[in-house]
Amino acid sequence: MPPELVGRVTAHLPRLSRAVMQLTSAEGFNILQNNGSVAGQHVPHVHFHIIPRVGTDGLGYRWLKSTYAPGRAEQVQRQLRDILRS
Amino acid sequence: MPPELVGRVTAHLPRLSRAVMQLTSAEGFNILQNNGSVAGQHVPHVHFHIIPRVGTDGLGYRWLKSTYAPGRAEQVQRQLRDILRS
Predict the structure, then answer these.
(1) pLDDT of residue B19
(2) Which of A5, A40, B22, B41 has an alpha carbon within 20 to 30 A of A55's alpha carbon?
(3) Catalytic member of B42, B45, B47, B49
(4) Where are the alpha helices (DSSP H) in B1-86?
(5) If we measure between CA atoms, which residue out of B1, B30, B2 comes closest to residue A39?
(6) C-alpha distances in angstroms, A64 versus A56, A61, B27, B51, B56?
(7) Is B59's CB within 8 Å of A54's CB?
(8) Residues 7..36 of B with a Cβ closer than 8 Å to A: which?
(9) pLDDT tens, residue by residue, B50-59
(10) Entry pTM
(11) Min Cα separation B55/chain A (Å)
C-alpha cells in the first residue's frame, strides 16, 4: 500500500477511535491491523480493528515467553538498520 | 494525536514492515498499537508494534468467545454512526 494512502486512511483512526470510546465507555483501545492469513487476516483488503478495552476483559496479545540469546537483539537491530539504509 | 500527524507517522509503516519481513522471512505481520495501560500500553508515547508472523508461531489476539444478542450489533452500528455524524 503506498505510504501516502496509508497516511490518508489512518488519519481517520483518531476520530473513529474516539467514537468507539465514547460509545463503549472503554478505558483504552488497541488498533490491530493484520497482514496475511498467518497473521489472522481473513478479509482480503487492508482494514484496521479498533478494539475497545476495559481492565477486566481478559483480551490481549498472546506472546511467546522466550528471550533472545545475549547479543541477538543488537544483531537484529543492526541488520534492520542496514536494510533500511540500503 | 492530530490526524495529520498520525498520517505522517503511519506512512513509514510500509517501509519499516517490508524491512522486518525481509529480515525475518516471515509470512505475514501484525501492526499493533496500544492505547492505555488496560490495552497493554507500557511505554507512555504513541508507538506501533510490527510483529512478524509465521504459521507455527502460536501468537495472536486472545478473543472472548461470546456473541451479541440478536439485533445488538445493528444497534451498536447505528449508535456509532450517530456519534460520527454529530
Answers:
(1) 98
(2) A40
(3) B47
(4) 3-10, 13-24, 72-85
(5) B30
(6) 22, 10, 17, 12, 12
(7) no
(8) 7-8, 10-17, 19-20, 22-23, 26-36
(9) 999 999 999 9
(10) 0.93
(11) 5
Pairing mode of beta strands A60-62, B60-62: antiparallel
Residue A23 pLDDT level (bands cut at 50, 70, 90): very high
Summarize pLDDT for B7-37 with one digit per residue, the tens.
Answer: 999 999 999 999 999 999 999 999 999 999 9
Q: Dihedral of CA B56/B19/B49/A46: which sign? A: negative
Residues on chain A touching B65 (C-beta within 8 angstroms)? none
Measured CA to CA, the distance from residue B33 to residue B35 in angstroms comes to: 7
A86 by Cβ neighbours in 10 Å (0-12 / 13-18 / 19+) ranks as: exposed
A28 in Cβ contact with B41 (< 8 Å): yes
Any CB–CB contact under 8 A between A46 and chain B? Answer: no
Nearest CA in chain B to A52: B39
ipTM greater than 0.85: yes
Rounded to 10 degrees, the C-alpha dihedral A75/A81/A85/B1 comes to: 170
C-alpha cell, B3: 490526524
